[in-house]
Amino acid sequence: MTHIDAGAELDPVHPVPLPAPGRALGLTAAEVAERVARGEVNDVPVRSSRSTADIVRANVFTRFNAIIGVLWLIMLFVAPFQDSLFGYVILANTGIGIIQEWRAKKTLDSLAVIGEARPTVRRDGVAAQVATSEIVLGDLIEIGPGDKIVVDGACVETDSLEVDESLLTGEADPVVKQPGDQVMSGSFVVAGGGAFTAARVGREAYAAQLAEEASRFTLVHSELRSGISTILKYVTWMMIPTAIGLIISQLVVKENAFKDSVARTVGGIVPMVPEGLVLLTSVAFAIGVIRLGRQQCLVQELPAIEGLARVDTVCLDKTGTLTEGGMDVTELRPLDGADESYVRKVLGALGESDPRPNASLQAIIDAYPDGDDWRCTESLPFSSARKYSGATFSEGTGESSTWLLGAPDVLLADGDPALAETERLNEEGLRVLLLARAARDLDAPDVVHGARPTALVVLEQRLRPDAADTLRYFDEQNVRAKVISGDNAISVGAVAGKLGLNGEVVDARRLPAERHAMADALDAGTVFGRVSPQQKRDMVGAMQSKGHTVAMTGDGVNDVLALKDADIGVSMGSGSEATRAVAQIVLLNNSFATLPSVVAEGRRVIGNITRVATLFLVKTVYSVLLAILVVCWQVEYPFLPRHLTLLSTLTIGVPAFFLALAPNKERAKPDFVGRVMRYAIPGGVVAALATFTTYLIARHYYTGPGSLDAETSAATLTLFLISMWVLAIIARPYTWWRLCLVASMGVAFLVVLVVPRLQEFFALKLVGAAMPWLAVGIAAVAAVALEFLWRRADRRLPG
């Protein structure tokens, strides 16, 4: 509804009313064009993702790519082509990473346009929405509840305007603005309305980067990424001394041919590098973003996918989350003999007095059209902090009256008879507003005092059809749901009960202020009503203080502070600009039922990356240990780079790619680093000891020319079989495609062993029968040891 000031004139061409005399018209089209030509435009680049150059740089210029790149260049000069295959594998992997993240970037960029802020700008006296980047210096920007202030400026018009600057100053209390007061980008309107002139645009604006940072696709802290970084740090520390020892051993002590020694040295160093681990983690995240994007879910920060999978408490705002935005007036109950037709006129006038009605007032507007003979002289917009709105009218009879509309338990004194009736209606899940006639001026600080109740307005909220199933899903996953609302506690409890969410109902005004005591009360309760915006923030902090990982959903400006502080903030796409700016996840389709998909995607990423990390780090552990054993025994390193390239491709590279992207519904488990290393260390130790045992026996078994190739082939067979068994364990529980994946890798290795050209290419030829069968036997013993050690690790790890 457009609010038309008294005396406003209507343009016969435009449906938008022209302002009354004395009201600012804004810039003219010529002035806008002139400023655009001068470059006085709000040109801050708001991106939802990293640039293409950043993606390429991040995937190419890594520590491990540098190590592998140097070793690859060396091998190109000193060894046959097949010994430098590992370098081409790295090129392919890096290319896949760049393509996948670029696809994710395109998805995010297209989705971000849907949720982009479009401020209302007044030009030539006509209000119109424009893109943020189209604002020019001097533009007159209209603002109302929930609007984000996108540039700095000075207020020109104010109507009970309250601005929350907490994202800039840390102060939670809204600031009342008067004409001439400054407003800053990054703040948002919580009540009232007005207009301001853009004084600083683009990069000159104070906190101009805030909106960009809040909505950017970022690689921020996550347990998964920090865990992988920790692992890679330890791997680097192990690699350096081991590689130095191997170089000295192969080049100096054994006095072998230089090129062969270099090849075997590189063959020992390359498999120590878990080069694909970081890549596959990024790919898994990126594909998760793409999958969720197809469901109209905008993931503004990558680790939010992971974070929601780790959440154990989800806080739900009732309005807009459990219920749809709209409401319907079901009943009007006049009090103390009030005339119903007169009450209808009051309600119609109140609806007309607010240019930006909330859902409750919109229902009243739909039910009670405004009469032409009432004129609003002063208005007090609704604020979630005070929980009522009001207006002063000049009635058609010339009489002046002031009215308040809001929560009965706020406007009425304790013990008032109307409260009992209100409570009964709330128990039925209905929302009740009280219309009261004020005895004091609207701007009086105690305007509520002495107000005379006139009527109860009964509204029915529309439940989201998917809310019950979503709440049931969270219950099945042992995720506690807490309903936190500014509405009456009993009414909220009734709505939650209709959706199958039962538990203690608490009036938040009776919650203890002390954090520890509040946390205990929150653990005991399920539904909380009459929660103030600051209290929502305190409640999130109290739950976090007890070790809970908290997700907060919401769509209104009263949810912003809590969304910002929660571990994961989830905003509805139809929510205010402020909520969309601070949330990590935006449900553009406004469907609460999308959340299980986000949880499932997070579990897929966490579970699969744990599998993949184990595969990569088993290889790192056995490579480091093999190098140490070679240095201690003063023997040639058993493998050339081509052997380990073949093994890595068949037992890690190809399987890891499929496993990292496979469906996975396992619950996210804590202690990522400990869990991975408790599997990788015993697996790597068993593989190294068994392989080196086969190698030492083969050195005594084979003699004469070509013996080193035969020894290498026997050791390769043992290592491949053990690596295949590791893959077979990691691939559990089996499905048809996982069995096919494992079997196809085994068949591929068998093809290499039986095809003469491939035998020659990979320098693999099993000599005789006794030694190959002994290699198989050693691998079988190692497989039994792996089963025992990993099952023991399963019992010791937390569920």
TrEMBL record:
Keywords: Membrane, Translocase, Transmembrane, Transmembrane helix. It is found in: Cell membrane. InterPro entries: ATPase_P-typ_cyto_dom_N, ATPase_P-typ_P_site, ATPase_P-typ_TM_dom_sf, ATPase_P-typ_transduc_dom_A_sf, ATPase_P-type_domA, HAD-like_sf, HAD_sf, P_typ_ATPase. The keyword Heme does not apply. The chain crosses the membrane at residues 60-79, 85-102, 234-253, 273-292, 612-631, 643-664, 676-698, 710-730, 737-758, 770-790. It holds the Pfam family E1-E2_ATPase. It is a multi-pass membrane protein. Residues 120-213 form the P-type ATPase A domain. PANTHER family: CALCIUM-TRANSPORTING ATPASE. This is HAD-IC family P-type ATPase. It comes from Streptomyces bluensis.
